């Protein structure tokens, strides 16, 4: 096994035992990037010489952190002090931020080796699409705006990658690229230094090749301080099988992955029951859209006024409020989402521990047709709940499928623990 | 009258008529700064040569905007591309951001002449206090973290100034400095590029010497598109005189200002009635504190990890969660605030148009004793409602007093219109 194939948890053990240096891991990864990047196109910026220099510094510096030397991609809407942050926008092409975004600073302080910036949709919102292709089949989309981060991890060009979700940009690409993705509870990871789109929705999260690596990163962000490991695996776990208000959009492959996961959980001793959400949740997809576009109006005013000719039409529409979303519409949507958050959390307790739900309709569509739909993500984003996507087999076209696990707000640590147990069952 | 004494509305008319140049206004203002700054200490950074250069550019450039040539201070937690943004923190001393914060870019695009950066509490939060003194009596505090912006406007060193409010940092200093302050509905002005403290509370607003100037700026931020002028002044306006849950903290001077304002409104034909808020609002001050400190924990993690020795003890306490605020506590406070927002807006309609309430307990305390209390601001911040402070006479020590006007969320434009009518009545 080459070093680049190790996940961060495995590599950390070897690095701590001085059986692997950060530089060796970096060089192995860079050699793999040189092979894979021409097809996958995950990177907006990567400077191998800089990576090796930083890896050497990590080797001479103090270790101790469990992330020491781990290799990271950073979505190119997140500021980095030593690399450009272009946001896939003509306005900010080659822009050099003066400091790291908060999440980058936290990762770096914990020993992360930032390899480079990963491709994104323009401002992580729309407009210009990323150049990235799905590493499992380059004719297919890697997903939405976090494509570069997901494809980098999915093709073993990075162990971890920072990403963002405002609609479905984090969880859907995780499923499409056959990796693990974690969207924490909204507000628990600072978004400072990441491009804003709709602050009520914008959430920083990360990708990894294992749930253990998701937890490793969660710990440095203060989200898995106690990361409880379930002694009995999934035995006794009460799982709600929840297709949600948009169930009609589940494709046969997605349905099959969901049912297989449910069956494996039940076989391993979990109590799986179908769960329907009450009526107010039917309106959450629309509320999400109103919040996203209503808040986007204020967010893109600056670029609209100062750089209009370099802005994709979709942002001009946002700033000009082409949808005609009034302040009252936005406030009603915000209030509806707030009320549903309380109602959602109240579903949980001794009789329900987590939801099992689709992360996407099915396999990744052809890149020529679509980048996929956020329909199985929008509601959870607006509910602020922690979500994890984990791999769950492949579909008819041989592309990865995933399932999504959802817990109530603030239960990030417990969700990571339950996801670890579930992943062990699915991995059979 | 010297040009620096004009408000932005007056100056704009002269500039548009070519009876005043931006450079003349800038030079007059700079001469006044040279006289007043040694006592007031409002500026963290001001470079007169740069100001004159930028004013000349405005004179040669296209006019047309109503803010063209207006003079602005920018609170030093808000990024500026051509001036340092030190945040009154040893960590960021002399830091040069690579781009303007969104609100600065919007103001600049609208012709604002940024004079310099104004003094702030460390990270607009606490820790190191600003050096600023109250321009009406330098032995007294100018207020909280937006002190520099408020004192700059209050001493005629700027016509307008950008500020922020997370607790009471915008409205209270407006009252203490005898000026107008506007905190818009949360979320309607992008906070991108301003230091985050508690994103659910952080709000960008501005100071001016007249309500007309507040509206002028509101228009460029898309908040006063229709800025309705009340044809009958305050006649028929239904005003709730609301001392709020912390009424016991109102000082005699503050009470007197409130009653005088209420009497003048009634004399001019407004219908003023006492209004008590129901029980849930009694818990809003505590909910605000829980949100501020709970969210601050994530926000300052980055500085805590990477720059701990340069951080004031109060931020270490925040990041280490010295208060022991759990995720559950934070979520309960967020949900309580969300529910109160709905209940608050529902109070308004044909029988209630706005609230009249104190912006601070009374006159500015001695700087040696206190920077004042946010007790009459915290609830409104967490309710996300638009607030305006306008001058309302002086107290026993000859220091300015103010009153605060509050409207439901999203009614910023109407509030500005009502505040204009109220200010005309108070100004008698």
Automatic annotation (TrEMBL), chains A, B:
Residues 24-416 form the Amidase domain. Its EC number is 6.3.5.-. Coiled coil: none annotated. It comes from the Bacteria. One of its GO terms (molecular function) is transferase activity. Pfam families: Amidase. Keywords: Ligase, Transferase. PANTHER family: GLUTAMYL-TRNA(GLN) AMIDOTRANSFERASE SUBUNIT A (PTHR11895:SF151), TRANSAMIDASE (PTHR11895). This is Glutamyl-tRNA(Gln) amidotransferase subunit A. It comes from Pigmentiphaga humi. The gene is gatA_3.
């Amino acid at each position: 096994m080459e070093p680049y194939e190790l996940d961060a948890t495995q590599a950390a053990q070897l690095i701590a035992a001085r059986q692997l240096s950060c530089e060796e891991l970096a060089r192995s990864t860079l050699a793999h990037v040189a092979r894979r990047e021409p097809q996958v196109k995950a990177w907006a910026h990567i400077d191998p010489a800089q990576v090796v220099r930083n890896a050497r510094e990590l080797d001479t510096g103090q270790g101790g952190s469990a992330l020491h030397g781990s290799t990271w991609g950073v979505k190119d809407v997140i500021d980095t002090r030593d690399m450009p942050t272009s946001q896939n926008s003509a306005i900010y092409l080659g822009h050099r931020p003066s400091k790291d975004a908060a999440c980058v600073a936290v990762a770096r302080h914990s020993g992360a080796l930032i390899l480079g910036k990963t491709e994104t949709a323009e401002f992580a919102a729309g407009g210009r699409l990323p150049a990235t292709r799905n590493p499992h089949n380059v004719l297919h989309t890697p997903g939405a705006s976090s494509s570069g981060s997901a494809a980098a991890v999915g093709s073993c060009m990075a162990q971890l990658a920072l990403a963002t979700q405002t609609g479905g940009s984090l969880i859907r690409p995780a499923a499409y690229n056959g990796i693990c993705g974690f969207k924490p509870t909204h507000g628990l990871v600072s978004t400072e230094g990441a491009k804003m789109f709709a602050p009520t929705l914008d959430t920083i999260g990360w990708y990894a090749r294992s749930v253990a690596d998701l937890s490793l990163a969660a710990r440095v962000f203060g989200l898995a301080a106690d990361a409880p490991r379930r002694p009995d695996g999934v035995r006794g776990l009460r799982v709600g099988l929840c297709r949600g208000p948009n169930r009609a959009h589940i494709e046969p492959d997605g349905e099959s992955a969901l049912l297989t996961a449910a069956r494996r959980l039940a076989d391993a001793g979990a109590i799986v029951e179908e769960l329907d959400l009450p009526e107010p949740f039917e309106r959450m997809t629309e509320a999400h859209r109103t919040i996203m576009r209503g808040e986007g109006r204020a967010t893109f005013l600056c670029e609209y006024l100062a750089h209009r000719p370099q802005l994709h039409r979709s942002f001009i529409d946002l700033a000009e409020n082409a949808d005609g979303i009034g302040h009252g519409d936005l406030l009603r949507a915000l209030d509806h989402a707030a009320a549903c958050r309380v109602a959602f959390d109240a579903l949980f307790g001794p009789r329900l521990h987590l939801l099992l739900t689709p992360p996407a309709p099915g396999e990744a569509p052809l890149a020529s047709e679509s980048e996929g739909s956020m329909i199985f993500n929008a509601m959870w984003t607006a509910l602020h709940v922690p979500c994890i996507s984990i791999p769950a087999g492949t579909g008819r076209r041989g592309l990865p499928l995933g399932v999504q696990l959802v817990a109530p707000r603030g239960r990030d640590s417990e969700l990571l623990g339950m996801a670890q147990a579930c992943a062990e069952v699915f991995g059979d």
